[in-house]
Amino acid sequence: EKGTYPHFMLKEIDEQPFVIRNIIQKYQNEDGTVRLDEDIRQAMKSSDRIYIIAAGTSYHAGLVGKQLIEKIAQRPVEVHIASEFLYNMPLLSENPLFIFISQSGETADLRGVLVDVKEKGYKALTITNVPGSTLSRESDFTLHTYAGPEIAVASTKAYTAQMAVLTLLAVDTANAKGIELDFDPIQELAIVASAMETLCDQKEKLEQIARDYLATTRNCFFIGRAADYFVCLEGSLKLKEISYIQAEGFAGGELKHGTIALIEDGTPVIAIATQEHVNLSIRGNVKEVAARGAHPCIISMEGLEHAEDAFVIPKVHEYLTSLATVIPLQLISYYAALHRDCDVDKPRNLAKSVTVE
Ligand code: M6R
């Protein structure tokens, strides 16, 4: 039920701090360490390469998951769009492990890949919000994202829940391999949950940004580098899905290879700057688009902010920035859709779960 909320999407955005705390509780041992099922731990440990298969927003969580698993657990990971994987399968490693990420657990494109890899004798882990779902039943292992039912077509809390669970999966694998971590994952996720609360409390400011930049525009670009690029892809999907604004996420450095030709007077460009090692280069890209007439809106992180930034997110661990950065992007999309009189919870041409190929 929506309760006092006008839309499920807004309710589900606000639920994200609770979801992260819930995940911490579900996957934490009594002594405060992370521990997943032994069979998942063994499957992760013994595989020589992980293949993440997903679609849409879950694919974007997979891109972040690759970084988390490679950085924390030092395991090589590939991420593939499910509908492409079947028809354009890469050369597989000797001992692959497949991870299917799906909020609904019913997405037909993923099921096609699952059936195929199971036939080939490979092991599969499904990360889903619906444990009894088709993908969960047909996989060897399941990790539950514990986000609670997600009703709005636009996925919000499922995405952050998927990234939180992927963090814990990476940490558990690192522990299994005896890799020492230089951060406390439970504490860092708790910091993310508080940051999410602070962000959800800034709706008025984000509504104003949506009004200033997106009320009448035809298109909008999101730019970022490294981890910020992945959240740009998610921010642009959210915006196009519910507000029908033509939106694209680009890697900052790619602009000069063609995309910058699209910048016109007043084109909104939302730039994300939460990664210290690329902070100056993404700001350089902002100058390039501003010089061509763009209307830039910089979203940065505490400690890296400059005076001209439109919005600053609280500081979170560098591996976990996407979990926080996506909140203002979700809210900006929500208010843009609202101001453009769109049906926020049920956008045109879309269904909550895509059970046809
Ligand atoms: O249920 P799934 O996670 O497998 O769904 C995948 C996509 O269809 C889904 O994420 C879609 O992109 C969302 N509507 C995006 O908000």
Automatic annotation (TrEMBL):
Keyword Flavoprotein: no
Keywords annotated in UniProt: Aminotransferase, Cytoplasm, Glutamine amidotransferase, Repeat, Transferase
Catalytic residues of the enzyme: 352 (for fru-6p isomerization activity)
Catalytic activity: D-fructose 6-phosphate + L-glutamine = D-glucosamine 6-phosphate + L-glutamate
One MF term in the entry's GO annotations: glutamine-fructose-6-phosphate transaminase (isomerizing) activity
Cellular compartment(s): Cytoplasm
Domain SIS: 40-179, 209-347
The keyword Repeat appears for this protein: yes
EC numbers, comma separated: 2.6.1.16
Function text: Catalyzes the first step in hexosamine metabolism, converting fructose-6P into glucosamine-6P using glutamine as a nitrogen source.
Quaternary structure and interacting proteins, as annotated: Homodimer.
Protein name from the UniProt record: Glutamine--fructose-6-phosphate aminotransferase [isomerizing]
Source species of the chain: Halalkalibacter alkalisediminis
Taxonomic placement: Bacteria, Bacillati, Bacillota, Bacilli, Bacillales
Underlying gene: glmS
Covered range of the whole protein: 244 to 600 of 600
